[in-house]
Amino acid sequence: MTGWLLLCLARVRGPWWAQLLLATCALAVAPMALFLDAVGVFLREWRIVGALGQTETRCPRGHMVVLSGPSAAWTCSSCAYTYGGASGWGRCPRCRSVAAYVSCPCGLSIDNPVFELVDDAR
Ligand SMILES: [Zn+2]
Ligand SMILES: [Zn+2]
Questions:
Q1: Ligand 2 centroid vs 89 CA: distance in angstroms?
Q2: What is the pLDDT of residue 121?
Q3: Residue 107 and residue 122: Cα distance in Å, rounded?
């Protein structure tokens, strides 16, 4: 929201007094915009931490899929590195990419909730 506010300010055209008035209004709401941005970042991180704490999930057919622990093993879809012990929702330890999904042994995919929350994964 802060970025949007600054972008609007940069695009303002018109007489100097209108620009000054708009800049004053923008400065008045800037603390609220920063606060809302901070709340958004906190909630996103909270959801990531919650997802990374999951030890298992279910596929659309209802099969239990273990996400972390000694029996969990993952192959990175970006670099093909195979690793275990880490969460299936987490980053590949080799290339640091986040998988968009994990696969159930039945063949169906399960969307990774972390993928949409991480900026560099898109
Ligand atoms: Zn990788
Ligand atoms: Zn399944």
A1: 17
A2: 54
A3: 24
